[in-house]
Every structure is written in structure tokens, then in C-alpha cells.
Amino acid sequence: MERHVIAVLVANVSGVLSRVSGMFTRRGFNIDSLTVGETESSDFSRITVSFHGDSAVQEQVVKQLAKLHDVKEVEVLRPEETVSRELLLVKVKNDSETRQDILAAANVYRAKIIDYSLEALCCEITGETSKVEAFIELMKPFGILEMCRTGLVALERGCNCLKTK
Amino acid sequence: MKISGARIIMETLIEQGVDVVFGYPGGQVINIFDELYRYQDRIHHVLTAHEQGASHAADGYARATGKVGVVIATSGPGATNLVTGIATAHLDSVPLVAITGNVPCSLIGRDSFQEVDIMGVTMPITKHNFIVKDVTKLADTLRLAFRIAKSGRPGPVLIDIPKDVQVNTCEYSPEPAVQADEKPVASDEKLLAVAKLLGEAKRPYIYCGGGVLTASATQEVLKLAQKLDAPIGCSMMGISAIPTSHPLFLGMQGMHGHYASSMAEHEADLILAVGARFSDRATGNTKKFAPNAKIVHIDIDGAELQKNVPVYLGIEGDIKDAVDRLAEMVSEQTLPEWQERIRELREIEKTAPQSGKTLTPYRIIDIMSEITDEDTIVTTDVGQHQMWTAQRYPFEKPRTFLSSGGLGTMGFGMGAAIGAQMATGRRVVLVTGDGSFGMNLNELATAVTNRIPMVIVIMNNGVLGMVRQWQTLFFQKHYSNTTLARQTDFVKLAEAFGAVGMRAADPKAFEEAFRMAFTMDGPVVIDCLIDEDEFVLPMLPPGGSMDDVITEIKEE
Q1: What is the number of structural domains in chain B?
Q2: pLDDT at B556
């Protein structure tokens, strides 16, 4: 089961997120992450969905999404032709014994420390999913208090753009 | 001139060529019904007993004609009562516009009286849905709803209109009726590849679905089949697309399909599926389905290709055009060996054992079909009687068999028959069971009020026969809750509703009753007493293929 990432350009209208996410639920496809935001035009939002499945699942996801009236374009983003990022905020237990190790790790991963208190410190890291997940693994032994991920955003490399026809 | 939202609804419906709507009034559609009162010379509103009946009636209207059916209901329970009807239309790709009222915009989200988020509820069972919160967008939204409902693969669209939007006014200017979107066109390259495969095939089989009816592609399919000398089968939704009397037609295939049709499909080396979707009831176990066949699939909905079974070649396109072009591409041929095998299969089918009872389901249908004509519309409910009708009744003309295929909605037939009769003016027959009839028999009131010439044939076996059949075969005869043991007298019930009721326990009585019923101008109920252990055969057991088909039941 591979991971697939697709970009979906949708009309920026109420209910559109329910329609898109509902299609996944209804047909038994599992979403790994879903992000949504307005595009350069306020008429459209762009949704990035990552999910796992074989090629038949990917084909059905794309076709079923394309059938929705509010969906204007769907594109499969192939890993080799795509730049992708996600952002993680992670709050880690802060004590005098581990502090230096956490800061060193954060430095190597180019994570930013965005909040600091005597009991906890909060790191922000941006990168591809694999980097974010590696950083989470690294933080686990220090004691993750809570964390929050944005999910994936992705654009195709080069000048190709997802536009309505 | 400024007019109210409620009046805009009337004007837009008239624009779209609507002259009959089905529905039920209520608090949040009172303004719409006030306009229906004013527009009664142009829009005939058929009041049903229950919103579900109205939704099935709009569906039957659409199935019988291909036009968009319209149903109107109030907010809350009125809207939720439409849900089964909308889902039924969705699964069978029926063009429907459902209009619901809702509480005023200012009360939305406060759990107001009779408020329900019907847009949320119906999202997975509509092709699209809307809530209109601005009266200036109402006319265009209604137009778009009609366009979506009838474009491509048709389907139901719901528009939720809060009460204040019905009251508010704005400028309105009429527009011509919306046209369906351009249909996708199958590529020449792919069609040539199919033509080549068809030319090479030794045992081709054409499998028609409901899409053949939607696309009015009967003649095109027949032309192709005749040139190829290929047998034709159909899914339940495809019934009536091909005349039963056509020599190449083998009838319905699938779980309860004709033996020859399902077997020919099983043995085929090439299946050309046209407007069908390989439902589990049509294929049985997909891993064992048609093991020797390359499957070629043509459908207007590209998402159906590769959805349920892997296909060798999938083509998205308008069926009528694609099959027509395909028929031009193939050469005329004969397939004597394959036709010989088909003859053998038909022989085996003919010698299948029949129950020795006098008033059998098949006997009922045979008598009916001697009295009805080719234009008679037959609707059914869901269960054994539906399968017997699908198997046995000789449908000759498109859109004469109306039945809930995908959703399998018991209680569909009563409303559908009323809608189909209203749409065509033709006499209709509802074949139902005592279980299914019990679901929506309240619509008998509607049929009486509107003097609908319809004959309701109840195959009354006192049990929920289809489930009982499964219990007999796979659940050690544990007849859990399938023996109805009701004391309902359907003759008296019909009379109480103001209809005519008759009872038949033998073929002669049934023939007399049906013949008389067929001359009357209102609804007639014929209660036919049949045996509780009649089976629908053949039958594919769950998870099975044609290798496991059950063709007779051995009495213990």
C-alpha cells in the first residue's frame, strides 16, 4: 500500500469540505491527512489529501472526487515531481537534565523553539513528512506533552499549476 | 417586477417544463403551497399520503419518461421522509429534484421546531444539494439543480429553501429550460480496439444495464448484437431495454437471473458491458465472475470503470453514440458454435422444475401478460415477487419495468406506479408482496383520490419470502420474524380505502379478477394466495459463482 498525495481544487463554498471528506468515509478510503485553505482566488480553495491504498484505490479516489459538483480539478502529485511540507508544533517536557539534548536535536533538525517555560518547551519544525516523523521519534524519549501537525501541503515542481479549465 | 421566492419556484418549474409535482404541505412550505394554489392550472400538485410516497412517485414519473421528477416536502420530518426515496433514485441514477422548506435563516442551527440539516443528511445520497439563503440566487440554483439532475449519469438533487427566502422578493426574468451538459464522447482509438476484440471473440456476450434505457440505445445495441451474432443479457436495471421476444435476448443475468443468460456470461470469452455497473447482485463473487472473459466496459460515468471488477478496456462515453459507432466498425459475422451452445443452455433452462401448486407466481405473471399490452407499465416492490416479475414478464418496450434495483426499497412500487401513471396516462400494474405492500399501502388513498387506473397484484404468501428463502437454505429453517401471521384482509382494506378488492386462490379466479380489474378506471387490489415455500430460482449462493448455482430445491 503506497501513500498517495492528491491536490483538489474546489469551489470556496460552504459544505465543500464535508463533501470531500464524506466521499472518503462513504467509500471506505482512509485519509492520512487533509489540509484546506483559500487559493490566490477567493472563489477557490485547495485541498491536499494524503491517503494509503493500491493503484485501484487511487484511481477511484480521483474519479469519485472529480464527480463532485464543487470539485473543479483533481491532480495526483507524484513524489518525484512534488515539493511537500508539513508543520509540527511539539511541546516537550523541559528539565535541566534533558534541556541541552533537546536544544541540540532541535538545532540539527533546524526546528525553532517558539515557547519556553520552566516545565516545557515548544518546538516548531517544517519539512517533509519523513523529517517531521523522525523529529517526533527523537522527542519521544524526552516526554512529549502534546503535539499538533498541520498535515501535508504540496505543490508540483516547475511551472505546472492546478487551474480550473 | 419583483416577485417572491415561492413564486420564483413556480416560474422556474414552468421554465423547466414541469407540469406535475408530487408532495405534501407543511409549516415551512406554506408559501410554496400558496403559490401552487395560484398556479394550479399550470402545475398539478399530487398530494400523497406520506412524503416517501411522493418521492417514489416523482421517481416513477422520471423513470417512465426520462424527464426530471419533482417532489416538494416541508422541513424536518417532511424532509427526512424523502430520504429513502432520494437514496432509491440515487442508486438507480434517476433524475429528481427534491425541494424542501426549512426554518427561516435566522432560526437555522438553533434546533428550531421541525428543523433538520437536510443538506447534511442527503449529501451522500444526492448527486448534489443546495441550501439557498439568498432569494436572488434562487432561480439560478433551481436551474442548476435541473441541469445537474439530467446531465451525464442522471441523479437526484435536493434544494433546501428556508422560509424567509420563499417570502423575500427580487427581480425575476424567465429563461429557456436548461439543457443537459455535453456528453463525453468515446474515443475512436478505443472503439477501434473494442471492435477488434469483438471481431476476434468466439463467445461474445453483451451485458446491458440501466444506462441503455437512460441513453435510449436499444436500437444501437440490437444493431451491434445482430452484426456480431452475439447474445444479449441484462442487469435488473436493464430490463425492458431489449425486447424479451428478440431472438438474441437471454434475459436478466445475475443472482436470480435466467440460467442461460448467466451461464452464457460465465462462459463468454468477451463481455461487452454497456451502461451497467457490475453490482454484487449481478456478478456474485467477483473473483470467480466470468473467469474466461475479457471485459470491455462502456459507461457515461468514468468512475464506474474499474470500480467493481477489473476491466480489460474501459471507455467513458455516451452509450448511444459509442455503440452506434462500434456497430459501424464491426463486420457482419455468424457464430454457429456459440449459438449452438446458447441453444443448449436455453434447453436446460426450459426443463427447470416448476412447483406443482396451482396458483404459482409464474402462472400469475403469465396470466397478467396475456391481458396487458406492450405499453403497460409494471412496477414492483422488492423481494421474491420482484425477481419473479423480472424473470418472467415479457417486457417489450423501454421504460415499462420500474423497480428499485440498487437500494432494494420495499414500498417503492406503490408511489412509482402512481407517478408513472400520471406521467404517461397509461394503465399501470404493481406487482407486490404482502410484506412490501404493507410498507406504503397508505398511498392507496392517493390512487383512489386521483382515480389512478392501476392493478395491484399482491403475491400473498404470509411471509417475507426472500428472507425466508435464505433462512430455508442457509439458516437451518430458523424463520426468525419472517412469518407475518397478520390478520389483514386486503379485500376489505382496499374497500376501506375506496378501492376495489378481489381475491384469487386459483388461476381461473385470478384471470377473471385481473381481466375485470384491467377495465376499471380506479385502483383495484387483487389478493393472490400463493404458497409460502415458493422459491426464486436459479439462485447464486452468497459468495458463489455460476459454478455454484442452485437450480432446484430438494425436499427433505
Answers
A1: 3
A2: 56
Do B406 and B275 lie in a common domain? no
Q: How far apart are CA B479 and CA B468, in angstroms?
A: 6
| DSSP 8-class letter at B332 | P
Q: Are A81 and A157 in contact (CB under 8 A)?
A: yes
Quick count: other Cβ atoms within 10 Å of Cβ A160? 10
Nearest 5°: the CA angle B27, B49, B491 is 160
Grid cell in block for residue B117: 440539516
Range of the domain at B214: 188-350
Burial of B404 (0-12, 13-18, 19+ CB in 10 A): buried
Q: Is A56 on the interface with B (CB under 8 A)?
A: yes
The answer to whether residue B350 scores a pLDDT higher than 90 is no
Q: Residue B344: phi, psi to the nearest 5?
A: -60, -45
% of chain B beyond a pLDDT of 90 = 97
Q: Has B196 been annotated as catalytic?
A: no
Cell numbers that stand for A133 in this block: 516523523
Question: Phi and psi of B263, rounded to 5°?
Answer: -70, -40
Position B303 confidence tier, pLDDT thresholds 50, 70, 90: very high
Cell numbers describing residue B115: 428543523
Predicted confidence (pLDDT) per residue in B308-323, tens digit = 999 999 999 999 999 9
Which residues in chain A are classed under CATH 3.30.70.260? 2-77
User: B148–A26: do the CB atoms touch at under 8 Å?
Assistant: no
pLDDT for the residue numbered B553: 84
Residue from B10, B22, B150, B163 carrying the catalytic annotation: B163
Per CATH, the number for A83-153 is 3.30.70.1150
The predicted complex's ipTM stands at 0.92
As a residue count, chain B comes to 556
CA distance A21 to chain B (A): 11
| Whether pLDDT at B555 is above 70 | no
